[in-house]
Amino acid sequence: MTDEIFLQRLRELIGRECTYLGQRCRVIEVLADASVLVLELQEALPPIQTDQYGQAVARGAEIAEVPLFGPSQDAPSEELLELLTRLQAAQLDDGAF
């Protein structure tokens, strides 16, 4: 599978919800240049964001980045494989397969 096909398949996951590191999250982006999959953590109450002076201005969701490749850069990272396994299990539970 070429890198472009791999990235396209990962982009198809955008919008999907799953569990990652024990937290509910949603896939929001695939950054090819940085080689990461970006997740938005789905917390009941997002943390408060501050401005440059430390004043509270808004609530915003936290994000997590999952590396696409392992240390050798020729195989998917363990974190990505775990996430894909959880996404597939969630899809099976939803009866989509």
What's the oligomerization state?
single chain
- Mean pLDDT over the full residue set: 86
Low-confidence stretches: none
Strand content: 25-35%
Task: Please sum up the structure shown.
This protein is of the alpha+beta class and 97 residues long. The chain is built from two helices and six strands.
Question: What this model shows, in words?
Answer:
With 97 residues, this protein is of the alpha+beta class. The protein has one domain (3-90). Helices cover 26% and strands 32% of the residues. The chain has two helices and six strands. The protein has helices at 3-11, 78-93, and strands spanning 17-20, 23-31, 36-41, 48-50, 56-59, 63-67. The strands form two sheets. The protein has a four-stranded antiparallel β-sheet with strand order 1-2-3-6. The protein has a two-stranded antiparallel sheet with strand order 4-5. Strand 4 and strand 5 form a beta hairpin. The protein is globular and about 45 Å long. The model has no long low-confidence stretch (mean pLDDT 86).
Q: Mind sketching the topology for me?
A:
Layout: H1 3-11, E1 17-20, E2 23-31, E3 36-41, E4 48-50, E5 56-59, E6 63-67, H2 78-93
Antiparallel strand pairs: 1-2, 2-3, 3-6, 4-5
Question: Tags for this entry?
Answer:
alpha+beta, 2 helices, two-stranded antiparallel sheet, four-stranded antiparallel β-sheet, 26% helix, 6 strands, 97 residues
